[in-house]
Inverse folding.
């Protein structure tokens, strides 16, 4: 089966609750192997396994593939149970120190939105705490065995803009303590206060914590896909949004939804992600949303298809992910590199080397008043060469990679254009 037919079949399995074995007519063992590989890469294999079980189609799956699916489901169930226990312990300790916690995305979705705990792939624990509780939250995490690179005051000053450095414990669990969930310095940046004002209390086992209210949760999922990941993300994140919308379908005040979008200047990213859901899963966009947004948003031809192509290119393996996971500052630099003259390329490179002193301290976790900070400009030079040499080489030798960069630059400019 060719690649596009396989992608279409995977989307069909995810969006339809019922289907027959006719969907897999003339499916060879090699096709099952390719479907499994694609679903794993997009972090939705366990959902495919559930769909097959619900439709009593295990019998048509080759034994080896079925066993792989079963083991994947069991492994993820055990992983998510472990993370649940660690989350409960973390939140309880935070509350003892009077630190409120909002559970972001993975934990809440896994246990309150998805029907089974072994369905949703979860890599780490993401929590939001008040900006003025940064030091206390970090200390609590340390007391529970989470460690990170040296964190200094520069990291805490940046905390209000995003999150502290990742922390990890002995079992390999990754913790990200956020002060905000939206990147700073953009025309769509907002204060984290709005998320606390709208948050709701929920209970999991005997642990009570806060979560984003349904509207902010849906908006967060949209913003993560669009403005933050610039569409280089897996199918799992679109499915997160789809299942969340279905879960809250009769509880959303769509007038309030529109109001928050426009107030925060998020309408472009949000509506575009809704259009992608419609394209891939036949999601029916509420008329009040569609009518409001389509009057103010102009699309570039081919944008929807480009976003879907970028999603299918997602690959978490280190080699591919490091080369393709480009953040906004990377995109600006690569755009200038592609379009600029040789002298302009040199200027871009020098600008990336000579960061401000505070940025350099943050980047390398240095003591705030260390005289060594200036020696790190030399290290910065070699780090940039190491980080970007493979990408720059690919830009000059691999047309598909150049096309990928061009697509992401187009999205970045379109999203950030007033």
């Amino acid at each position: 089966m060719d690649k596009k037919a396989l992608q279409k079949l995977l989307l069909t399995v995810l969006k339809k609750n019922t289907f027959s074995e006719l969907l897999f007519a003339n499916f060879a063992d090699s096709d099952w192997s390719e479907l499994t590989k694609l679903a794993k890469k997009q972090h939705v294999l366990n959902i495919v396994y559930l769909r097959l079980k619900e439709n009593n189609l295990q019998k048509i799956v080759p034994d080896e593939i079925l066993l792989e699916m079963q083991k994947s489901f069991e492994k993820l169930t055990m992983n998510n149970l472990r993370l649940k226990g660690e989350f409960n312990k973390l939140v309880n300790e935070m509350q003892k120190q009077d630190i409120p916690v909002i559970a972001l995305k993975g934990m809440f979705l896994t246990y309150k939105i998805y029907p089974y705990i072994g369905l949703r792939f979860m890599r780490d624990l993401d929590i939001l705490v008040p900006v003025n509780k940064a030091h206390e939250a970090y200390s609590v995490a340390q007391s529970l065995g989470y460690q990170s690179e040296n964190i200094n005051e520069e990291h805490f000053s940046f905390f209000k803009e995003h999150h502290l450095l990742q922390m990890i414990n002995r079992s390999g669990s990754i913790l990200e303590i956020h002060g905000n969930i939206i990147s700073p310095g953009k025309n769509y940046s907002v204060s984290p206060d709005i998320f606390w004002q709208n948050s709701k209390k929920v209970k999991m086992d005997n642990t009570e914590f806060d979560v984003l209210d349904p509207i902010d949760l849906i908006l967060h999922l949209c913003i993560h896909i669009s403005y933050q990941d610039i569409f280089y993300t897996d199918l799992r994140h679109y499915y997160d949004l789809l299942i969340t919308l279905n879960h809250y379908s009769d509880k959303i005040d769509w007038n309030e939804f529109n109001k928050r979008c426009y107030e925060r200047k998020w309408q472009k990213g949000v509506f575009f992600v809704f259009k992608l859901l419609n394209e891939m899963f036949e999601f029916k966009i509420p008329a009040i949303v569609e009518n409001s947004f389509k009057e103010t948003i102009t699309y570039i031809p081919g944008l929807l298809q480009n976003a879907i192509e970028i999603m299918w290119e997602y690959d978490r393996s280190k080699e591919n992910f490091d080369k393709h996971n480009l953040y906004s500052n990377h995109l600006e630099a690569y755009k200038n590199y592609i379009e600029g003259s040789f002298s302009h390329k040199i200027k871009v490179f020098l600008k990336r080397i000579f960061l401000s002193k505070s940025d350099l301290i943050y980047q390398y976790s240095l003591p705030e008043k260390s005289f060594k900070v200036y020696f790190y400009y030399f290290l910065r030079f070699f780090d940039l060469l190491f980080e970007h040499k493979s990408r720059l080489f690919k830009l000059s030798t691999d047309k598909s990679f150049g096309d990928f960069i061009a697509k992401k630059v187009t999205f970045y400019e379109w999203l950030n254009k007033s």
